[in-house]
Design goal:
Layout lengths: L19 H9 L6 H19 L4 H18 L1 H14 L5 H23 L8 H9 E4 L1 H8 L5 E5 L5 H10 L4 E5 L5 H13 L2 E5 L4 H9 L3 E5 L9 E6 L2 E6 L2 H8 L2 E9 L5 E5 L12 H18 L17
Parallel strand pairs: 1-9, 2-5, 2-8, 3-4, 3-5
Antiparallel strand pairs: 6-7, 8-9
Helix pairs in contact: 1-5, 3-5, 4-5
Length: 329
């Protein structure tokens, strides 16, 4: 779940989602010199890796991913510094040694995440939905059914925990008509491959900019919308909102959308269990009530929900994202 609904073109910030080899690879495309050479090379590598992970038993995948994460932790000095800064700002109550232990565990999570994302590149028809069914457990489906029965649509708020793509996937496989707000990836073959994987589990995507008409139509037809609220979002779609005690630009579209359409707002989170299963948990609808008349208060309430998710599962959040940019002084 990523991105923001908007009715007019806005310059998209650089893509910072993803971790490990997949996230690094996506950022390479901004370099016009290496694009032609690396595009073909990376495509071959990803499809070979997709073939390999298709045959990996889950315990072996988790073990290999943790080894990959240890390697990333040793080599990725730039993002590791961002992670340390974010943890110091958000979790100052923890000793520095505990935050470093948490960051090392966080990188082992990124290694597993990278291998999970590579399943998008499996050459075998039907592999990705079968993989999702094998690995992911959904809890709280009854909360979505109750909210959906109102007939005014459902907005899921979440963040980049565990494997957000698997969260989207298991919802689609359970019959939740989900529209994901996200960005168009480059190069085009990468975009088409990821889109095909999402479509295979019943998830429709809407791409920035000019997403508002499609979003409103989906909600008015009683469908569901997935939006991540944990990343930095510049104005005009973002506004300064307290996040772990710091006012920083944060997506501020969910409250106005809910007020305009009457859609229910549910939080969704996920965690990777020690046995390798990814547990997706849907909450009951949030009681926003009169708060919806105050967009700033609504956004602060929703962001506190995201904070609670992070505190409950800190080792599997995307700490290496530059969350605290352009701060007010």
């Amino acid at each position: 779940m990523a991105g923001s609904p908007t009715g007019s073109p806005q310059p998209a910030p650089p893509y910072e989602g993803g971790a490990g080899s997949v996230g690094v690879a996506i950022r390479i495309w901004h370099n016009p010199i290496v694009n032609p050479l690396l595009s073909g090379l990376l495509r071959a590598i990803l499809f070979c890796a997709g073939t390999t992970v298709s045959f990996l038993p889950r315990p072996a995948e988790v073990s290999l991913g943790r080894l990959l994460g240890r390697l990333l932790y040793a080599l990725d000095w730039k993002r590791k510094r961002i992670g340390r800064e974010n943890m110091a700002r958000c979790l100052p109550e923890l000793p520095a040694t505990e935050r470093e232990r948490l960051l090392a565990e966080n990188y082992r999570h990124y290694g597993i995440l990278a291998l999970e994302l590579i399943h998008y590149f499996s050459p075998f028809p039907g592999h990705y939905p079968a993989y999702v069914r094998r690995v992911v457990v959904l809890e709280g489906y009854e909360h979505w059914r109750k909210a959906n029965a109102r007939g005014k649509g459902v907005i899921f708020i979440s963040g980049h925990f565990a494997n957000w793509e698997l969260m989207v996937a298991v919802g689609g496989l359970h019959g939740i008509p989900l529209t994901l707000v996200t960005r168009h990836l480059k190069p085009e073959w990468l975009h088409l491959q990821i889109e095909a994987g999402r479509l295979s589990i019943g998830c429709r995507c809407v791409y920035q900019p000019r997403t508002l008409p499609t979003i409103l139509k989906a909600l008015r037809q009683g469908e569901s919308l997935g939006i991540a609220m944990d990343q930095y979002m510049p104005p005009p779609m973002g506004s300064p909102t307290p996040f772990f005690g710091t006012r920083v630009d944060t997506l501020a579209a969910v409250g106005p959308l809910a007020a305009r359409t009457g859609a229910a707002v549910l939080s969704a989170t996920q965690r990777r269990e020690p046995d390798g299963r990814v547990r997706v948990i849907l909450s009951p609808a949030l009681d926003l009530g009169p708060l919806l008349k105050d967009p700033a208060a609504t956004n602060a309430r929703l962001v506190r929900e995201i904070e609670n998710m992070i505190r409950a599962n800190p080792s599997q959040w995307l700490w290496i994202h530059r969350r605290f940019k352009n701060l007010e002084h």
